[in-house]
Description:
The protein has helices spanning 5-17, 20-27, 31-45, 61-88, 109-112; strands at residues 50-51, 58-59, 94-99, 123-128, 136-138. The protein is an alpha+beta fold. It has 2 domains: 5-88, Orthogonal Bundle (Arc Repressor Mutant, subunit A); 94-138, no CATH class. The longest helix is centred in the middle third of the chain and has 28 residues, at 61-88. The two termini are 44 Å apart.
Amino acid sequence: MAFSSDSLAIFLAVLDAGSFSAAARKLGRVPSAVSMAVAQLEAELDLVLFDRATRKALPTSAALALEPQARQVICQLNLLDAQALQLHKGLEKRLTIAMAPELADRPLEPATGNPRPGIPQPGNRGAFGHPDRSHSPVA
Length: 139
């Protein structure tokens, strides 16, 4: 497989920076490593991505055609990383609350009210009934 998260990051860094040396500075790498990574990607794709005739790395039409999809993939990888971090920290997308039927007439609002701004909120779901038996969900 030609594309990896690293090769995509390097490809986009060169596109954004306009040169291998500027991309290398941005990525904290030496310019030769960035140049070699792009050359390897070009060899694997059998495409020329950058015109190296000048000091600048000018993107070819192939690079410009691949750019939107590359940005989308990097965005999706960032979202995946963020979700994995949330799971690691115990932040779930859904909160399930089960309670005894005798408590069902009490409002849950104080416990599920407005939290601090900026904190992602799970989808809430409540269920009434005995914890060891099936119960009816409440949205």
